[in-house]
Design goal:
The chain is about 30% helix and about 25% strand. The chain is of the alpha+beta class. Helix 5 packs parallel to helix 6. It has two domains: about 190 residues, Enolpyruvate transferase domain (UDP-n-acetylglucosamine1-carboxyvinyl-transferase, Chain, Alpha-beta prism), CATH 3.65.10; about 200 residues, UDP-n-acetylglucosamine1-carboxyvinyl-transferase, Chain. Helix 10 links the parallel strand 17 and strand 18. The chain binds uridine-diphosphate-2(N-acetylglucosaminyl) butyric acid. Uridine-diphosphate-2(N-acetylglucosaminyl) butyric acid binds next to helix 1, helix 5, helix 6 and helix 12.
Length: about 425
C-alpha cells in the first residue's frame, strides 16, 4: 500500500513555524542556472520532490547539478542535448522552462508539453508566441515543441494572459537576445520578480520586474551567481490557514507580509487577530467567532489560486456562508468532494465554491488530488474530530517540505504510514 498521512485532528495549532524557500521560485532559479556557462549556487532551496525532478530535467541536457540539502550547485558549460526526455518533462510543469535558456544559448530547444497538476487546461501559447516574437521559428515535431533561432532579437511583446511560467520563459530568452524587449502584461508574482533579480545578479539588465511591464536589455553573456530563494508565501499562507482552521495561534516567523497582502486583507475581513511587524513574520489567531467572506482567486497581487483550496478548507470552520470564485484555472475545485467526505458543507457551481461553515468535521479516508488540494485535506483533517487518513501523499511531497514534522512541532498529531 502506498504511503499515507494519518492525522488525529481537533488540536489547535500553536507556536512558531518557519517555511522553506519558495517551491516555484526555486524551480525558476534552477532553469535560470542554464543561462550561464559559469558555476551558479542557489541557496534556501526547499527539500521537496519537484526540485529533484527539475534537477534531472536539467542534467539530461548536460548540465552538472549537485543538490546538497538546501543548496544547489549548477554548471551548464555546454548542452549535450537541446531537448529533455519526455518522461522527465511529464513530471512537472516547470520543466518547460528549459526552453528559454537553451534556445537563447544553443539556438535550438525542444520540449514536450509538460505535466504537472491537473488543475485545468494549461496551454503554452504565451511561451510560444513570446519565442516567435523574439524571432524564433516554433513548430510541433511529434510530441515536442521545437524552437529554432540563429539569433534572437528584442521586441515589444504583449502577453495574452499574464502567465507566470510564460513570463519567466520569455524573460529567460530575451535576457540573451540582441536589443531591448518589453513584456507588456507580464506576470508580477514575487517569484517572477525574484527570478529577474537573480538574472540581474548574473549580468542581465532587467527593469520593471514585479510590475506588468518589464524591460529587458539583452546582454551577450551571463556570468555565475550565488543567490538565495525567497520564503514560500504559499506555504506560509497554508500554515496560517491551518492555524485559523484549528482555532489556534500560529506565527510564521519568516513569512513576507508584503507578499501576502491579499491573504492578510481576508484575515481582517474574517476578523481574525493578525500581527505583522516591520520585518518578516506574520502571526494569526482567532479569539472571537469569525465572519464569512468572499474571495476571488486572480493573478498577483490578487488572492492566489494556490491558496484557494486551503482557504476553502479553513472557511469550513467559519460560521455563515462564504464563497470563493476561481478565475485562474478551470479545474481547481476537485478538492470539494474530498472536504465533503470530511463532512464539510461545501458545493461548487461552475467556477464558484460555496461553503456553509461552522460545523464540526469528522475524520475520514480522503485523497490529496494535487499539491494544493492536498493542503486543503490536511487542513480539513487538522480541524476534524477523529482520525483522517490521506492518500496521494506524493502530491504533498512535491510542494511541502517536512510537512508532518512542521505541523507536529506546533501541536498537531500527524504521522506518515
Ligand atoms: N495560460 C494561457 N496560456 C499560456 C499559459 C497559461 O492561457 O500559455 C492560462 C492558463 O490556462 C491558466 C492561467 O493562464 O488559466 C494561469 O496559468 P499560468 O501560466 O500563470 O500558470 P503556470 O505558470 O503554469 C504557475 C505555478 C502554479 C500557479 C500558477 C498561477 C509553477 C511551477 N507553477 O503555473 O503553481 O498556480 O503559476 O499562479 O510556477 C502550485 O504551486 O501548486 C502551482 C500549481
Amino acid at each position: 500500500m502506498s504511503e499515507r498521512f494519518v492525522i488525529r485532528g481537533g488540536r489547535p495549532l500553536r507556536g512558531e513555524v518557519a517555511v522553506s524557500g519558495s517551491k516555484n521560485a526555486a524551480l525558476y532559479t534552477l532553469a535560470a542556472g542554464l543561462l550561464s556557462a559559469d558555476p551558479v549556487t542557489i541557496r534556501n532551496v526547499p527539500e521537496i520532490a519537484d526540485i529533484g525532478e527539475m534537477a534531472d530535467v536539467c542534467r539530461s541536457l548536460g548540465a552538472e547539478f549537485e543538490v546538497d540539502g538546501t543548496t544547489v550547485h549548477i554548471q551548464a558549460r555546454e548542452f549535450t542535448e537541446t531537448a529533455p526526455p519526455t518522461e522527465l518533462v511529464m513530471a512537472l510543469r516547470a520543466s518547460f522552462l528549459v526552453m528559454g535558456p537553451v534556445l537563447a544559448r544553443a539556438g535550438e530547444a525542444g520540449c514536450a508539453s509538460p505535466g504537472g497538476d491537473v488543475i485545468g487546461v494549461r496551454p503554452l501559447d504565451v511561451h510560444l508566441a513570446g519565442f516567435r516574437a523574439l524571432g524564433a521559428e516554433v513548430e510541433r515535431v511529434g510530441a515536442e515543441w521545437v524552437a529554432r533561432a540563429s539569433k534572437l532579437t528584442g521586441a515589444r511583446i504583449f502577453l495574452d494572459y499574464p502567465s507566470v511560467l510564460g513570463t519567466v520563459n520569455v524573460m529567460f530568452a530575451a535576457a540573451l537576445a540582441e536589443g531591448t524587449t518589453t513584456i507588456v502584461n507580464a506576470a508580477a508574482e514575487p517569484e517572477v520578480e525574484m527570478a529577474a533579480a537573480m538574472l540581474n545578479s548574473m549580468g542581465a539588465r532587467i527593469t520593471g520586474h514585479g510590475t506588468a511591464i518589464m524591460t529587458i536589455e539583452g546582454v551577450e553573456r551571463m556570468h555565475g551567481t550565488d543567490f538565495e530563494v525567497i520564503p514560500d508565501r504559499i506555504e506560509a499562507g497554508t500554515y496560517l490557514l491551518a492555524g485559523l482552521a484549528t482555532g489556534g495561534d500560529l506565527h510564521v516567523t519568516n513569512a513576507d507580509p508584503a507578499a501576502l497582502d491579499s491573504l492578510l486583507t481576508k484575515f481582517h475581513e474574517l476578523d481574525a487577530d493578525v500581527t505583522v511587524g516591520d520585518g518578516p513574520g506574520v502571526r494569526v489567531s482567532c479569539l472571537r467567532p469569525l465572519n464569512p467572506i468572499q474571495v476571488q482567486a486572480v493573478p498577483y497581487p490578487g488572492f492566489p489560486t494556490d491558496l484557494h483550496a486551503p482557504m476553502a478548507a479553513a472557511l469550513t470552520q467559519v460560521p455563515g456562508v462564504s464563497t470563493i470564485y476561481e478565475r485562474v484555472f478551470d479545474n481547481r475545485t476537485l478538492y470539494v468532494g474530498e472536504l465533503r467526505n470530511l463532512g464539510a458543507r461545501i458545493i461548487t457551481g461552475g467556477q464558484t465554491v460555496i461553503v456553509e461553515g461552522g460545523s464540526r468535521l469528522s475524520g475520514a479516508i480522503v485523497r490529496a488530488l494535487d499539491i494544493r488540494a492536498g493542503a486543503a485535506v490536511v487542513i480539513g483533517g487538522l480541524a476534524a474530530d477523529g482520525e483522517t487518513e490521506i492518500g496521494g501523499v506524493e502530491h504533498l511531497d512535491r510542494g511541502y517540505a517536512h510537512l508532518a514534522e512542521r505541523l507536529n512541532a506546533v501541536g498537531a498529531d500527524v504521522s506518515r504510514r
